[in-house]
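## Example record

The block below lists the input lines for one assembly entry, exactly as stored, with component labels intact.
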Amino acid sequence: MKDVILVLSSFLASAVEMVEALTIVLAAGVARGWRSSLIGAGAAAAALAVVVAVLGPALTVIPIDALRLVVGALLLVFGLQWLRKAILRASGYKALHDEDEIYARELSEAQSAPHEERAGVDWYGFTLSFKGVFLEGLEVAFIVLTFGSTNGNIPLAALGAAVAIVLVAAVGVLVHAPLTRVPENTLKFTVGIMLTTFGIFWGAEGAGAHWPGEDAAIFGVLAFVIGWSALMVTLLKRRRLQIVTA
Amino acid sequence: MSRVTAFGRFWWDFIVGDDWVSAAGVAIGLAVTAAVGAWWVLPIAVALVLTLSLVRAVRA
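Predicted structure tokens for the full assembly:
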């Protein structure tokens, strides 16, 4: 069961971030040429591979309790950020992520930027694509490494991420447009809940606490995080409705 | 901006982001859990931190 959650978490986190990276790579490709955009995306993927290759083995030599404390803290910080934004979007306090709008903005900025050629590529297109893939991918790399190392199975976590990357890239090539129909907020909500749940579980264990029921306690934590998040959405929706009708 | 400052800022933005209250709350929650050694401290701390973070975001 833990393996399924591990693969699912990596897959969903990667899928969401890949959809966002794809929007930027598409905008860079259409506005500045595909060669620069694809070289930028490829360079970012190579840089991410280096990060994973360096950090992955380093994480495996850290004692498990210290690792769980650090991983728990990181997952909680990331998870709470995802969860906060997802709750604000679900309750109407923040606009839903609009890939069409982001694509149009990136496209417009890329079209108006001056042409500068370095090392045979359009520099703006290269850096736009590189930054998009690297920054979106870095969080995925962290999630894959922390989830994988704490579960003692980095390859399985990497498999979930790889399937998502291939899937989104394939759909992107076929559709040749931003993936607007992906329910991004639902996916982000799910990932936020998973990261926060594992962050609480491993963070508390790493800090020296013992869960009643051992590993089965994770389902109790999951239910608590889902319940509290749902309560927050309900309360914020009600508050917003009161303000609107007042 | 020096490269060291830019590097530090990048990691601050990447990990802490625009909500330092959550990061500080997580650190305090883990410290209290380590001091008390009780499993129930962190879930309560996280619920409080999330609520506080949402209240701040809504007011902003």
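Residues 18-59 of chain B form one domain. The mean pLDDT of chain B is 89.
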